[in-house]
Design goal:
single chain, 326 residues, alpha/beta, TIM Barrel, four-stranded parallel β-sheet, 17 helices, globular, binds adenine, binds zinc ion
């Protein structure tokens, strides 16, 4: 079989994908028309031409601009449905979707509009295709800890349908140490946690995340190699690192896929798995992410299988459901 087909058929768990980053150009422009939101792009090609990022910050500007077209419950439903159908086609058996309600509640959209749209689509997609999906409520680190606490309080009515909590947004200048009390509270309430760290922030941020926040998973973590002692500690702890190589190249965290630290991370015994991050904006779903990463880094099929199994094992599924995918 071709590499692409092998990657598609591999049973995969997608653990690091932002629902807002799954908004494809066609749906974005449809929603802009539906909701009469002014956007600076008239065609899909014009919008795609804007997918040239200098860094994380320049990407986040476009990502949040895209979010402005999402207004109604049906919009969140349509976004989630379209993504889960593509993920199913891509051979994703289970996915944990980051979603950041603060973007929308700040614009006066009710939390129930947003969450019920997403959660209904997750339930319906599961019935239609069999894909298993759950929600990770994501706070924006650039908004600070008080707002994260307010987010946590506001989503508690949905707690039984939330698989865990994460944190993304602008990393530089917003180190994990700002969120020690928030993560302690999440753990006190029994929630699973992840945190973006070491995407463009230094290894010191990964160390802070690991030591001060004690997350169940670390998202990205690629700058960890600058601190060999930390590599040994995190490898020994088995803490999963959800790595997104295509994203790292698009956001210029690494110069090219061929220079990506993934092979060194594997050699160091870290628990790494592969993910897409923002498939619409980086123009690469999970199967393509596996295939292009394998091609450019020369990964063999046993290595791809190991990466996929790491993903399944690192999921927040109950043990029996995890086992069924291995
Ligand atoms: N939100 C969406 N994608 C992100 C990324 N790559 N880093 C931080 N926050 C994000
Ligand atoms: Zn991410």
């Amino acid at each position: 079989t071709s590499l692409r087909r092998f990657c598609r058929e591999l049973p995969k768990a997608e653990l690091h994908v932002h629902l807002e980053g799954c908004l494809e150009p066609g749906l974005l422009l449809d929603l802009a028309r539906r909701n009469e939101v002014d956007v600076p792009w008239r065609t899909e090609d014009e919008l795609r031409a804007a997918y040239r990022f200098r860094d994380l910050a320049s990407f986040l500007d476009l990502y949040f601009a895209g979010c402005r077209v999402l207004r109604k419950r049906q919009d969140f439903y349509d976004l989630t449905t379209a993504h889960l159908d593509r993920a199913h086609q891509d051979g994703v058996a289970h996915t944990e979707l980051f979603f950041g309600p603060q973007t929308f509640t700040e614009q006066g959209i009710a939390l129930e509009t947003v969450l019920d749209g997403v959660l209904d689509a997750i339930a319906d997609a599961g019935e239609r295709t069999g894909i298993s999906a759950s929600l990770l409520v994501s706070a924006h680190r650039h908004r600070g800890e008080d707002e994260a606490f307010a987010l946590l309080d506001s989503v508690l009515p949905w707690a039984d349908r939330v698989a865990g909590f994460g944190m993304g947004g602008a990393e530089t200048g917003n180190p994990p140490e700002k969120f020690v009390r928030y993560y302690a509270e999440l753990r006190r309430q029994g929630f699973r946690t992840c945190v973006h760290a070491g995407e463009e922030g230094p290894a010191a941020y990964v160390r802070q995340a690991f030591e001060l926040l004690a997350p169940d998973r670390i998202d990205h973590g690629i700058t960890i190699l600058d601190d060999p002692g930390l590599v040994r500690e995190i490898a020994a702890a088995g803490t999963p690192l959800t790595v997104c190589p295509v994203s790292n190249v698009r956001l210029r965290a690494v110069p090219s896929l061929r220079e990506h630290p993934l092979p060194r991370m594997l050699d160091a015994g870290l628990n790494v798995s592969l993910h897409s991050d923002d498939p619409a904006y980086f123009e690469s779903g999970l199967a393509d992410t596996f295939a292009t990463t394998a091609h450019d880094l020369g990964l063999d099929r046993p290595t791809l299988t190991a990466l996929a199994r790491n993903g399944v094992r690192s999921s927040f599924l109950p043990p029996t459901a995890r086992h069924a995918l291995l």
